[in-house]
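REQUEST ID: PR-0412
SUBMITTED BY: lab tech R.K.
PRIORITY: routine
TASK: structure prediction, single protein chain
INPUT:
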Amino acid sequence: MNYERFEGPDGLEIRVPIDEGYRTCAECGGDCDPEPTALDGLGVRIAFVCPEHGVHSMVDPFEDKR
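STATUS: complete
OUTPUT:
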């Protein structure tokens, strides 16, 4: 997967997939709202949630740092 890279806080690199399909609900085709989440032992992830159909996908912007 190809990523767009941004400089984040404290010099950390944030990566976001270039293909924005991760934001699109598979059921209705709508744009999902990002919601930051932290899961015990898994670090920070961003969940993309369709208001009508729930969580569509999760992105880990720090995946390569683990």
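NOTES: The chain has a mean pLDDT of 81.
REVIEWED BY: pending
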